[in-house]
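Lecture 7 notes: from sequence to structure.
We start with the chain below.
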Amino acid sequence: MSFTYNGITSENMGLKVTNKQPPQRAEISKSIITIPGRTEPIFQINPEMSSVDLPYTCEINNLENLRNIFSWLSGKGILIDSDEPEKYYNCITCKLIGTKRISDELREISVTFECSPLAYAVSNDLITISIPTEIYVGGTYFAQPIYKIYGIGDATLKVNQTETPLYISELSDYITIDCGKMIAYKDLNVLTSATSGPFPFLQAKTDNYIDWDGDITKIEIIKNERYL
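Predicted structure tokens for the same chain:
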């Protein structure tokens, strides 16, 4: 058992993982609406999810490295567990590092990572299309891709033949559509008025048909497959 944080493995830092909690699903937000005269309330499921805690119990016998471990596990980062090396978590913070004295030479370390609720695919290669195309999206939860769209003039981007496409006005050379951050930009400039309509997400575990109208020459896509 091991974990990798920001490209460094627990083994390389002298940590032996002795216990850990398997991945858990984040708590899903809900609303309870009470209506006068109605016996039972209405339960509404919301899209928001809470963060998840991933705790590890470790041992270390190189006590001189303890402060280096504290520094390594500071701040935000990318966490990969050895049970699922093909997935990673966006770690908000390593919120707890507790130590316990086992002997003069041995310490027990409790590490708890607070992570965003969804896991992401480590393999996230760029896909380039120049004609309307179907692309397969894995994962178990809808993806929020990044599109880099090349072309000139007004254009429309459609996914799965939606009736509410994304409209792009006055496309000049290229524009980047980041569906996770819900922004459109070119270089470092946010283009707040360059698009209208919903951001085009991708459905998981199926083919997604990507089509467009207008003078688009090619689209580069980073899928950002996600797992619940």
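Points to note: Helices lie at 66-72. The chain has a mean pLDDT of 93.
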